[in-house]
Amino acid sequence: MSLNNKSLFANIKYDLPAGLVVSLVALPLCLGIALASTGRSDLLFSGVIAGIVGGIVVGSLSGSSLGVAGPAAGLVVIVLNALDTLGSFEAFLLAVVLAGALQIIAGFLKAGIIGYYFPSSVIKGMLAAIGITLILKEIPHAFGYDADFMGDEAFAQKDGRNTFTEVWYSFRYNSTGAIIISAISLAMLILFDKPFMKRIQLFRYIPGALFVVITGVILNLVFGAAAPQWVLSGEHMVQLPVASSAQEFFSFFKTPDFSAFNKPEVYTVAVTLAIVASLETLLSVEATDRLDPFKRTTPTNRELMAQGTGNMISGLLGGLPVTQVIVRSSANIDSGGRTRLSTIIHGTILLISAVFIAKYLNYIPLASLAAILLMVGYKLAKFELFKGMYKLGLEQFIPFVVTIIAILSTDLLKGIGIGMVVAIYFILKKNHKHSYHYIKEEHRDGDVITLLLSEEVTFLNKGSISATLDNLPDGATVVIDGSKSMNIDYDVLEIIQDFKKHQAPLRNISVETRGVGEVEAVGAH
């Protein structure tokens, strides 16, 4: 089934409820990341601005069908360090604008092709790791222990604790009201996931997450009347800034300090943001495309330009940098979103909420939203994924597991880097074995050994070919056949030529080459 040629509004019955759910999930994530990134409660709205821009602007320009952009937990440390380096939030906003311009340039230069070079085992490991991280990070919020901000993905927290100690503290310092709300919410989500529920007309297009949020609000109001000791308030609730006047609302927006153009540090921060935000976006694009039930492919260069435009506008309005975010994208898919309209709707709802109904959104308990994210995490890290990867063999399973462990114990980008190293090791190992065919033929005058080179012989094959030549028996007759090769790198040609001219005569080895060109030795005396 193809959705690409349909009208933007053709799937609104799916995209509207999905966009609503994603906006409810995204709101506390935007606020939590803003607080963690800036350390200032007066800049909470910078996260909401980034969420709005990520939904409306990036969603409109992107070619991603289901990806959702917004402020990312992976940039928290970079933003904090940048604020210390630059000395003001306004100077940092200028760096965000410049980072966006660099992303647009990268898109025009076709740098998005990098996104196609992440191994499948690493991407699947990333999805599983995010799922496990969501489960571990949302358990405290489900228990009513909200010391850490919602949306944190890093193992080591700012307060000196970590993912596992936070879970332990949640068992010790919990809230009965939160546990009741999250338990009922999870039960509802499991029920809504059953096939028979989809046969009921009312629930066919309305995701269970929407009912969960409404139920959480009602339960907390009931607690207020019947069991005041269970009531959730303060840090246990969504805390969207509420403006008492239009003037106060517009004061939430900041503008870049363009006088900071002469600071070299601004450009260093801009380049760092552009690189990290682009990498996180490309990783999320690859992961989201794998989760897409319609198996559509996102044009990565267009995505970089869309994200770059989003960052420029977010920076100009006083917002944090944006990237595509796998957690929100997964929630979008899980809620039944079909096209990028759901992303645009999510951004529009965030905007309407911030302007008109901020007061009422603050009635939503974090425990309800934690239950939704727990379900998203479970679906990302199902046991079937581990079982399927194991069946593919150790070359796929080991990088998959290493990526999971590395992300859980560090953060997303570091974990991906470690997983990539392990995956590349197995790729090189496989490449080492398949760079040529070794054929030994018996003849009356002695054995003839033929090395039939592969179609593509690159510098990656250098080690295996060199080792094979070194291990040839003295006095052998050798044919090195490159007649079927489309390309043989200079590095390999140099090794073959050196062996033929210098090493083989010393070992009485007769060498014949076919389709292997001569190269000029550089630096030889």
TrEMBL record:
Broadest EC class assigned to this enzyme: lyase
InterPro entries assigned: SLC26A/SulP_dom, SLC26A/SulP_fam
Residues in SLC26A/SulP transporter domain copies: 13-395
Regions that span the bilayer: 16-36, 43-62, 93-118, 171-192, 204-227, 266-283, 363-381, 401-428
Membrane topology per record: Multi-pass membrane protein
Enzyme Commission designation: 4.2.1.1
Alphabetical keyword list: Lyase, Membrane, Transmembrane, Transmembrane helix
Key word Isomerase present: no
Record's subcellular location: Membrane
Name of a matching Pfam family: Sulfate_transp
Gene Ontology molecular function: carbonate dehydratase activity
PANTHER family: SULFATE TRANSPORTER (PTHR11814)
Annotated protein name in UniProt: Carbonic anhydrase
Highest classification ranks of the organism: Bacteria, Pseudomonadati, Bacteroidota, Cytophagia, Cytophagales
